[in-house]
Protein backbone atom coordinates (compact mmCIF):
# COMPACT_ATOMS: atom_id res chain seq x y z
CA UNK A 1 0.00 0.00 0.00
CA UNK A 2 2.75 2.41 0.96
CA UNK A 3 4.60 1.95 -2.34
CA UNK A 4 1.42 2.56 -4.37
CA UNK A 5 0.68 5.74 -2.43
CA UNK A 6 4.28 6.87 -2.96
CA UNK A 7 3.77 6.28 -6.68
CA UNK A 8 0.56 8.37 -6.66
CA UNK A 9 2.29 11.10 -4.67
CA UNK A 10 5.15 11.17 -7.17
CA UNK A 11 2.68 11.53 -10.06
CA UNK A 12 0.92 14.42 -8.27
CA UNK A 13 4.24 16.16 -7.60
CA UNK A 14 5.24 15.85 -11.25
CA UNK A 15 1.91 17.16 -12.51
CA UNK A 16 1.58 20.18 -10.21
CA UNK A 17 4.62 22.09 -11.55
CA UNK A 18 3.64 21.18 -15.12
CA UNK A 19 0.34 23.02 -14.61
CA UNK A 20 2.11 26.12 -13.30
CA UNK A 21 4.89 26.15 -15.90
CA UNK A 22 2.31 26.07 -18.72
CA UNK A 23 0.82 29.38 -17.55
CA UNK A 24 1.23 32.53 -19.62
CA UNK A 25 1.85 34.69 -16.57
CA UNK A 26 4.58 36.84 -14.97
CA UNK A 27 7.52 34.75 -13.78
CA UNK A 28 7.28 36.15 -10.25
CA UNK A 29 3.76 34.83 -9.67
CA UNK A 30 4.66 31.44 -11.17
CA UNK A 31 7.68 31.18 -8.86
CA UNK A 32 5.62 32.16 -5.81
CA UNK A 33 2.91 29.60 -6.69
CA UNK A 34 5.51 26.88 -7.26
CA UNK A 35 7.43 27.71 -4.10
CA UNK A 36 4.50 26.76 -1.88
CA UNK A 37 3.23 23.92 -4.07
CA UNK A 38 6.69 22.31 -3.92
CA UNK A 39 7.26 22.92 -0.19
CA UNK A 40 6.46 19.29 0.57
CA UNK A 41 3.61 18.00 2.68
CA UNK A 42 1.60 14.82 2.93
CA UNK A 43 -0.61 15.44 -0.15
CA UNK A 44 -3.33 13.75 1.88
CA UNK A 45 -6.21 15.38 -0.04
CA UNK A 46 -5.20 14.35 -3.58
CA UNK A 47 -4.14 10.94 -2.25
CA UNK A 48 -7.58 10.45 -0.69
CA UNK A 49 -9.20 11.30 -4.02
CA UNK A 50 -7.01 8.89 -6.01
CA UNK A 51 -7.33 6.16 -3.34
CA UNK A 52 -11.13 6.43 -3.51
CA UNK A 53 -10.97 6.07 -7.29
CA UNK A 54 -8.75 3.02 -6.81
CA UNK A 55 -11.39 1.54 -4.48
CA UNK A 56 -13.91 1.78 -7.34
CA UNK A 57 -11.39 0.10 -9.65
CA UNK A 58 -11.18 3.12 -11.93
CA UNK A 59 -7.94 4.36 -13.57
CA UNK A 60 -6.55 7.00 -11.24
CA UNK A 61 -5.41 9.29 -14.08
CA UNK A 62 -9.03 10.41 -14.55
CA UNK A 63 -8.84 12.02 -11.12
CA UNK A 64 -5.47 13.71 -11.52
CA UNK A 65 -6.68 17.17 -12.67
CA UNK A 66 -9.21 17.41 -9.81
CA UNK A 67 -6.61 16.06 -7.35
CA UNK A 68 -4.13 18.75 -8.42
CA UNK A 69 -6.82 21.45 -8.24
CA UNK A 70 -7.59 20.34 -4.69
CA UNK A 71 -3.94 20.60 -3.68
CA UNK A 72 -3.77 24.09 -5.22
CA UNK A 73 -6.68 25.22 -3.05
CA UNK A 74 -5.17 23.66 0.07
CA UNK A 75 -1.85 25.38 -0.71
CA UNK A 76 -3.48 28.78 -1.24
CA UNK A 77 -5.12 28.44 2.19
CA UNK A 78 -1.72 27.76 3.80
CA UNK A 79 -0.13 30.81 2.13
CA UNK A 80 -2.92 33.04 3.42
CA UNK A 81 -2.96 31.39 6.87
CA UNK A 82 0.74 32.21 7.31
CA UNK A 83 0.31 35.95 6.57
CA UNK A 84 0.98 38.53 9.34
CA UNK A 85 -2.74 39.40 9.44
CA UNK A 86 -3.62 35.76 10.14
CA UNK A 87 -1.25 33.35 11.96
CA UNK A 88 1.91 35.41 11.30
CA UNK A 89 4.14 32.36 10.77
CA UNK A 90 7.73 32.61 9.56
CA UNK A 91 8.15 28.90 8.84
CA UNK A 92 6.08 26.31 7.01
CA UNK A 93 7.39 22.74 6.92
CA UNK A 94 10.78 24.00 8.04
CA UNK A 95 11.11 26.56 5.22
CA UNK A 96 10.46 30.33 5.19
CA UNK A 97 6.81 31.06 4.50
CA UNK A 98 5.76 32.48 1.13
CA UNK A 99 5.45 36.10 2.29
CA UNK A 100 8.93 35.92 3.83
CA UNK A 101 10.39 35.04 0.43
CA UNK A 102 8.18 36.96 -2.01
CA UNK A 103 6.68 39.71 0.16
CA UNK A 104 3.13 40.02 1.47
CA UNK A 105 1.58 41.38 -1.73
CA UNK A 106 2.94 38.59 -3.93
CA UNK A 107 2.02 35.98 -1.32
CA UNK A 108 -1.58 37.19 -1.33
CA UNK A 109 -1.60 37.15 -5.13
CA UNK A 110 0.00 33.68 -5.26
CA UNK A 111 -2.81 32.41 -3.04
CA UNK A 112 -5.42 34.15 -5.18
CA UNK A 113 -3.84 32.69 -8.31
CA UNK A 114 -3.83 29.12 -6.96
CA UNK A 115 -7.46 29.41 -5.87
CA UNK A 116 -8.76 30.70 -9.18
CA UNK A 117 -6.51 28.51 -11.34
CA UNK A 118 -7.75 25.40 -9.51
CA UNK A 119 -11.23 25.89 -10.97
CA UNK A 120 -9.76 26.44 -14.44
CA UNK A 121 -7.90 23.12 -14.15
CA UNK A 122 -11.13 21.23 -13.45
CA UNK A 123 -13.09 23.18 -16.08
CA UNK A 124 -10.47 22.42 -18.75
CA UNK A 125 -10.45 18.66 -18.02
CA UNK A 126 -11.56 17.05 -21.27
CA UNK A 127 -11.63 13.51 -19.86
CA UNK A 128 -14.87 13.91 -17.91
CA UNK A 129 -18.40 14.81 -18.93
CA UNK A 130 -19.79 18.33 -18.57
CA UNK A 131 -22.32 17.17 -15.94
CA UNK A 132 -19.62 15.58 -13.77
CA UNK A 133 -17.39 18.62 -14.25
CA UNK A 134 -20.11 21.05 -13.10
CA UNK A 135 -20.81 18.86 -10.06
CA UNK A 136 -17.13 18.70 -9.12
CA UNK A 137 -16.68 22.46 -9.52
CA UNK A 138 -19.85 23.25 -7.54
CA UNK A 139 -18.92 20.95 -4.66
CA UNK A 140 -15.33 22.24 -4.62
CA UNK A 141 -16.52 25.85 -4.41
CA UNK A 142 -18.81 24.97 -1.50
CA UNK A 143 -16.11 22.99 0.33
CA UNK A 144 -13.55 25.79 -0.04
CA UNK A 145 -15.84 28.81 0.43
CA UNK A 146 -17.92 30.47 3.17
CA UNK A 147 -19.91 27.29 3.86
CA UNK A 148 -16.68 25.32 4.10
CA UNK A 149 -13.02 26.10 4.69
CA UNK A 150 -13.31 29.91 4.73
CA UNK A 151 -16.25 29.79 7.14
CA UNK A 152 -14.24 27.49 9.40
CA UNK A 153 -11.29 29.88 9.30
CA UNK A 154 -13.50 32.81 10.30
CA UNK A 155 -14.94 30.81 13.22
CA UNK A 156 -11.39 29.89 14.21
CA UNK A 157 -10.32 33.55 14.24
CA UNK A 158 -13.39 34.50 16.30
CA UNK A 159 -12.59 31.76 18.81
CA UNK A 160 -9.03 32.93 19.47
CA UNK A 161 -8.38 33.88 23.09
CA UNK A 162 -11.78 32.51 24.15
CA UNK A 163 -12.88 29.29 25.77
CA UNK A 164 -15.20 27.66 23.26
CA UNK A 165 -17.37 24.55 23.56
CA UNK A 166 -16.54 21.18 22.03
CA UNK A 167 -19.44 21.73 19.61
CA UNK A 168 -17.94 25.04 18.46
CA UNK A 169 -14.51 23.45 18.10
CA UNK A 170 -15.96 20.65 15.98
CA UNK A 171 -17.72 23.23 13.79
CA UNK A 172 -14.36 24.93 13.19
CA UNK A 173 -12.58 21.72 12.28
CA UNK A 174 -15.43 20.21 10.26
CA UNK A 175 -15.26 23.31 8.08
CA UNK A 176 -11.68 24.60 8.20
CA UNK A 177 -10.07 21.20 7.63
CA UNK A 178 -12.85 18.65 7.20
CA UNK A 179 -14.78 20.00 4.22
CA UNK A 180 -11.83 19.74 1.81
CA UNK A 181 -10.97 16.26 3.12
CA UNK A 182 -14.61 15.31 2.65
CA UNK A 183 -14.54 16.72 -0.87
CA UNK A 184 -11.47 14.59 -1.63
CA UNK A 185 -13.41 11.40 -0.94
CA UNK A 186 -16.65 12.62 -2.53
CA UNK A 187 -14.87 13.69 -5.73
CA UNK A 188 -13.20 10.28 -5.97
CA UNK A 189 -16.55 8.57 -5.40
CA UNK A 190 -18.31 10.76 -8.00
CA UNK A 191 -15.60 10.03 -10.57
CA UNK A 192 -15.77 6.37 -9.53
CA UNK A 193 -19.53 6.27 -10.27
CA UNK A 194 -20.53 5.45 -6.70
CA UNK A 195 -24.15 4.68 -5.83
CA UNK A 196 -26.01 7.22 -3.68
CA UNK A 197 -25.75 4.86 -0.70
CA UNK A 198 -22.01 4.53 -1.17
CA UNK A 199 -21.64 8.30 -1.52
CA UNK A 200 -23.60 8.86 1.72
CA UNK A 201 -21.48 6.33 3.62
CA UNK A 202 -18.21 7.69 2.24
CA UNK A 203 -19.22 11.26 3.08
CA UNK A 204 -19.79 10.20 6.70
CA UNK A 205 -16.50 8.26 6.62
CA UNK A 206 -14.65 11.39 5.49
CA UNK A 207 -16.35 13.49 8.18
CA UNK A 208 -14.94 11.24 10.93
CA UNK A 209 -11.58 11.11 9.15
CA UNK A 210 -11.39 14.92 9.00
CA UNK A 211 -12.09 15.32 12.70
CA UNK A 212 -9.56 12.61 13.52
CA UNK A 213 -6.98 14.37 11.35
CA UNK A 214 -7.39 17.59 13.32
CA UNK A 215 -7.39 15.87 16.71
CA UNK A 216 -4.08 14.24 15.78
CA UNK A 217 -2.79 17.69 14.79
CA UNK A 218 -3.75 19.06 18.22
CA UNK A 219 -2.03 16.13 19.95
CA UNK A 220 1.15 16.65 17.92
CA UNK A 221 1.21 20.31 18.97
CA UNK A 222 1.76 19.01 22.51
CA UNK A 223 3.93 15.92 22.11
CA UNK A 224 5.24 16.13 18.54
CA UNK A 225 8.84 16.43 17.34
CA UNK A 226 9.57 19.95 16.02
CA UNK A 227 12.08 18.54 13.50
CA UNK A 228 9.41 16.25 12.01
CA UNK A 229 6.55 18.72 12.17
CA UNK A 230 8.60 21.59 10.73
CA UNK A 231 7.13 24.16 13.11
CA UNK A 232 7.22 25.11 16.77
CA UNK A 233 5.51 22.73 19.21
CA UNK A 234 3.26 24.28 21.85
CA UNK A 235 2.05 27.20 19.73
CA UNK A 236 -1.63 26.40 20.48
CA UNK A 237 -1.02 26.76 24.23
CA UNK A 238 1.11 29.87 23.66
CA UNK A 239 -1.67 31.45 21.57
CA UNK A 240 -4.33 30.48 24.13
CA UNK A 241 -6.15 28.44 21.50
CA UNK A 242 -8.96 25.99 22.29
CA UNK A 243 -8.00 22.50 21.15
CA UNK A 244 -9.19 18.96 21.77
CA UNK A 245 -6.55 18.35 24.47
CA UNK A 246 -7.37 21.67 26.19
CA UNK A 247 -11.08 20.80 26.30
CA UNK A 248 -10.85 17.02 26.84
CA UNK A 249 -7.34 16.54 28.33
CA UNK A 250 -4.63 14.82 26.31
CA UNK A 251 -5.93 11.33 27.19
CA UNK A 252 -9.48 12.42 26.34
CA UNK A 253 -8.33 13.71 22.96
CA UNK A 254 -6.57 10.41 22.24
CA UNK A 255 -9.75 8.49 23.07
CA UNK A 256 -11.78 10.82 20.84
CA UNK A 257 -9.29 10.21 18.02
CA UNK A 258 -9.65 6.43 18.46
CA UNK A 259 -13.47 6.67 18.48
CA UNK A 260 -13.59 8.69 15.25
CA UNK A 261 -11.18 6.31 13.52
CA UNK A 262 -13.20 3.27 14.63
CA UNK A 263 -16.38 4.81 13.23
CA UNK A 264 -14.61 5.80 9.99
CA UNK A 265 -13.42 2.22 9.43
CA UNK A 266 -16.92 0.85 10.12
CA UNK A 267 -18.46 3.19 7.52
CA UNK A 268 -15.77 2.31 5.01
CA UNK A 269 -16.56 -1.38 5.48
CA UNK A 270 -20.29 -0.71 5.01
CA UNK A 271 -19.64 1.04 1.69
CA UNK A 272 -18.72 -2.39 0.25
CA UNK A 273 -15.78 -1.25 -1.84
CA UNK A 274 -12.30 -2.69 -2.20
CA UNK A 275 -10.50 0.02 -0.24
CA UNK A 276 -7.09 -1.15 1.04
CA UNK A 277 -5.54 2.25 0.30
CA UNK A 278 -8.23 4.10 2.27
CA UNK A 279 -7.80 1.70 5.20
CA UNK A 280 -4.05 2.31 5.06
CA UNK A 281 -4.59 6.11 5.06
CA UNK A 282 -6.77 5.68 8.18
CA UNK A 283 -3.83 3.99 9.90
CA UNK A 284 -1.46 6.74 8.78
CA UNK A 285 -3.73 9.54 10.01
CA UNK A 286 -4.21 7.87 13.40
CA UNK A 287 -0.50 7.35 14.04
CA UNK A 288 1.24 10.10 12.02
CA UNK A 289 4.10 11.99 13.67
CA UNK A 290 4.12 15.06 11.42
TrEMBL record:
CDD domains to which the protein is assigned, alphabetical: Trans_IPPS_HT
PANTHER family registered for this protein in UniProt: FARNESYL DIPHOSPHATE SYNTHASE
Keyword field contains Nucleus: no
Needed cofactors: Mg(2+)
GO molecular function: (2E,6E)-farnesyl diphosphate synthase activity; metal ion binding
Highest rank taxon of the organism: Bacteria
Keywords, alphabetical: Isoprene biosynthesis, Magnesium, Metal-binding, Transferase
NCBIfam families on file: FPPsyn
Catalyses which reaction(s): isopentenyl diphosphate + (2E)-geranyl diphosphate = (2E,6E)-farnesyl diphosphate + diphosphate
Name of the protein this chain belongs to: Farnesyl diphosphate synthase
Family: Belongs to the FPP/GGPP synthase family.
Annotated EC: 2.5.1.10
Main enzyme class: transferase
GO biological process terms, semicolon-separated: terpenoid biosynthetic process
Matches recorded under Gene3D superfamilies: Farnesyl Diphosphate Synthase (1.10.600.10)
Pfam families (alphabetical): polyprenyl_synt
Protein's organism: Anoxybacillus ayderensis
GO CC annotations on file: cytoplasm
